[in-house]
Fold V-set and immunoglobulin domain-containing protein 10.
Amino acid sequence: MMITSAVVLYLLLLSHQTVSEEQVQQFVIGEKGNNTTLHCLDHPVNASSVLYQWKKDGAVVATQNPPNPSVHLSISENGFLRISGLQLIDEGLYECESQAKGGRSWQTLSKIQLTIAAGPTGVSLDISPATFLNNGTLFVHKGSNVNFSCSSESNPSQNLTWTVDNLASDNPEREFGSKSPLAFSITNIQPLDQGTYTCTSQNTLSRRTANKTQELLVYYAPERHPECSWELGDKPSDVLFICSWFGGYPVPTLTWQEVEGAAEGPTINLTTSQQTEELNVSVNRSILHDGDKVKCTGHHVTGVEKSCSFTLKIPYPTGQPLATALEGTNITISCTETSSLPPAKTVWKKNDDLIENTSKYIVQENRPALTLTIVNVTKADEGVYYCYSENPLGARELEVYLNVKTSAGNGGAIVGIFVSVLVMMIGIVVGVTVYTKRDRICIGLRFSQLDDDRVDVLSLVDSDEEEIFHEAVPRLPPVTNGHATTLVEIHRIPSCDHEDIADSTEQSDQTRANLTEAGPQRAELQPAV
C-alpha cells in the first residue's frame, strides 16, 4: 500500500509541476483548511535591508507591507509566506524573491512546490437489506444475501478498506481498493458473520485516515415450535405452567393466555408476557377446571410467531372391574390412565390404605398402565381394590373387585370336566363303530320294512356240501360230462305284487333248467324259509 501511494504522489507532483524537478528546492504538503508557512531558503543575513515578494506559478500573490493586507496570504519580516485556511486553489509552485531597498531587480531565492491534500471526508457506508434498531444497530435475517458499500471524498486520491471485528474471523480485512464506492456482498449470511463492520478511507498523500463503523447483528427465530409443559408447584395448591422456546437470537417474547374457559367457574386470568426463552406461571388449582384451554404464544423480532396449547382434563382411569383368582396363586390387576392433563399421579388403594411394594404386593408402573400383583392369594385378599388417579383438576378412581375361589370349591368343576371328556370319548367310539358296520345296519333296516308278500331268491351253495342235503333234497338228473352240479336254494320272500307269483315260478323253472345244462355244478331245491 505504501508503494502505491508513493507512485500516485509522484505522478501527481509531475502533473502539477511547471518547472523542472531540479529547480524545485522543497516540496510542501498542506491539508485543506489548515495553515502553512513557506520558508525563503536563501534569504540574506540582514533581512531588514531587503524587500520580499512571493510568486505563485509566475504571478505575484503577496508583497511586504501591501496597502490592503490579506488575511489569507501574508509575508513576515524575515520573508516567510504564511497561508491561512489552505484551499485547493493554493496548490502550485511558489517562488521567494528579494530586492535590496532602493534596488530595481528581484532575485529568486527559493522555489517550493505546495501540494494540497483534502480529505478523506464524507465517509459513508451502506448495508442492505437491513433494519435499524432503536439504538442504531442494524440487523439482518439469517440466510439472506447482504450487500456492503463504502464511499468517501479525498484529494488527490484515497484507499478504502472494509474490516470486520468478530470472534469468528482471524483475518479482519474483508475488502480493499482505491475506487469509491468499495462494495462486496455476503450470500446466505450466518450468525458467525455478525460483528462490527468498519470502512476506512486513507488519503494517499497526507496519510490522513477517516472511518465509519456499523454494528451488524444476524437475527434468527427458533426453528421448532414452543413447548408447553406443567409440573406441581412449590405449594400443594399450585400448578406450574411452563412455556419454553429455545434456539433463537435474540430471545423471543412469550405470552401465556387462556384461550377457552370452562362453562362454569372463574376464569384463569393467565395473560402474562415476558421477553425470555422460558416463561413459568404459577396458578392456583382452585381456579382450574376440566375443559380449560391455555395457550403460549412466542413472538420473535424477525416476525416469526408460533404457539403451543393444551386443554386441561380430569383423570379417568380405565380397566377390568372384576378379577378372579384361585387361592394360593398369584393374580395381577391393572388400570390405565391416559386422558388427564396435567398428567395424573396414579396409585393402588384398598380400604383407603395406600398399597406399596412389599412381599405381598408388587406395584409396577409401565406408563400408561399401573399394575398390582398379589402374591399367594388368600381368601382375606378378596374385596375391592381402587385405582386412584389425581391431578390438579381433581381425582377419580376405578373399582376392581377380586373374587377368590378355594381349592375345595373347584372339585365339582374338575369332576364336570372329567365327565365331559368321558362322554365325548364314548360318542367317538360309538360313531366309529356305526360307521364301520354301516352296510349291515342298512341291510337289516331294509328287510324289516318288507311286507309279507314273497319273492323268489336264488342262492348259490358250494357243491362240496351236497352230502348234507343228499336225503332232504331230490337229486337232479346226472350230467353226461361227469362234473358236479351247483346247488340252488330257492327262497320265497313276501312281495306286495301278487300278480308276479306266476311269473316268478316260471322264471324259477327256467333257471333250474339252465343250471342243469351248466355242467360242473348241480342245482338243488331247498324249501324257502
Remarks:
- The longest helix spans residues 411-436.
- DSSP finds four helices and 33 strands in the chain.
